[in-house]
């Protein structure tokens, strides 16, 4: 059980108004599951065609060096193709998130009332009353803040994608 001093210290830390970033707190977000999924899919897909090619060529050529050259050529071409496909897919996804962010920023500036209503609906789902939400909405309006939690999750996803795919 924590002593009174330890509990007081924890409460003090919890009441600290300094941001997590200012306190040196960093959160590590990774997409390990996505990478593992890509590796498994890539390995399964990347090995299927060379084996099928080798099986087909064995009936046409008796000299194994032709088969080896053909399979190695296909492996190289397949690796380049899959690499470019993965890069372009990641870049397209990043571009999509950036476009969505710009659209949301436009809506915040030019469709203010709709965005306030969207904010009210979102925070009502968390059990807040309109009176509790009003000061938050007012702050968002004055500072042109995008407040939609789904947008914030998209921003997190964008940061992860940019880390993986590059800017």
UniProtKB/TrEMBL annotation:
The chain crosses the membrane at residues 66-88. It comes from the Eukaryota. Keywords: Membrane, Transmembrane, Transmembrane helix. GO terms for molecular function: manganese ion transmembrane transporter activity. Pfam families: VIT1. The keyword Transferase does not apply. One of its GO terms (cellular component) is endomembrane system. This is Uncharacterized protein. The lineage of its organism: Eukaryota, Rhodophyta, Stylonematophyceae, Stylonematales, Stylonemataceae.
């Amino acid at each position: 059980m924590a002593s009174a001093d330890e509990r007081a210290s924890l409460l003090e830390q919890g009441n600290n108004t300094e941001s997590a970033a200012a306190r040196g707190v960093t959160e590590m977000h990774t997409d390990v599951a996505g990478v593992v999924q890509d590796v498994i899919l890539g390995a399964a897909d990347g090995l299927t065609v060379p084996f099928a090619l080798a099986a087909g060529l064995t009936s046409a050529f008796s000299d194994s060096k032709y088969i080896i050259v053909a399979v190695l050529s296909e492996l190289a071409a397949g690796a380049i193709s899959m690499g470019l496909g993965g890069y372009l897919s990641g870049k397209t996804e990043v571009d999509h998130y950036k476009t969505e962010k710009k659209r949301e920023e436009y809506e915040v500036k030019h469709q203010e009332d709709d965005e306030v209503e969207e904010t009210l609906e979102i925070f009502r789902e968390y059990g807040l009353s309109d009176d509790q939400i009003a000061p938050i909405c007012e702050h968002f309006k004055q500072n042109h803040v995008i407040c939609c939690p789904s947008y914030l999750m998209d921003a997190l996803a964008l940061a992860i994608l940019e880390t993986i795919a590059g800017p």
